[in-house]
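Re: that chain you flagged

S.,

Sorry for the slow reply, it's been a week of failed gels. I finally had a moment to sit down with the sequence you sent. For the record, here it is as I used it:
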Amino acid sequence: MTLNSFYTRYSVTAAILYVLTAGIIIYGNNYENVWLIFVGSLLFSAVVLTGVIQVNHRVHDSASIKSMFAVGMRITLYGLIIASILCLLMIGTKSLFVGPVEITQSPSQAGPDSSGDLVFTLFTATVLVNAILGALASLIGSSVAKRNQKTEKGRTLV
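Prediction finished late last night. Pasting the structure tokens below so you have them in one place:
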């Protein structure tokens, strides 16, 4: 397996796990369970951490710290792009298929529209939280997976 297919496999896995938890909130119309987005972010970072450890194992535990960190950051970046596009598509399809809403209350009694808040929360979690947790997982994974901690030297992957 080439390194590009390795990036693609782990990036798509991380994005899909995140998007599944975000989809529960988007399509479930239950905005009280926003904590599920952060569970998805933790799953995203767990896949990045697993990818960094697996790439080190793939080269027989001889990768350098810089290369493993670069691999983790690429998995994070590609996963962020895929997750952002999929979340944008989910929000778009939800807005397309929602029918007209009957107003049973007068406009002064109607509650606030929370769809704008959902878009902001989802965008913040998708881009910022996943980027921070993915970078942290890359840093932790590259420093922990290195067998010989005394030197930075190792096999360059990128």
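What I noticed first: The CA atoms of residues 8 and 121 lie 26 Å apart.

Talk soon,
D.
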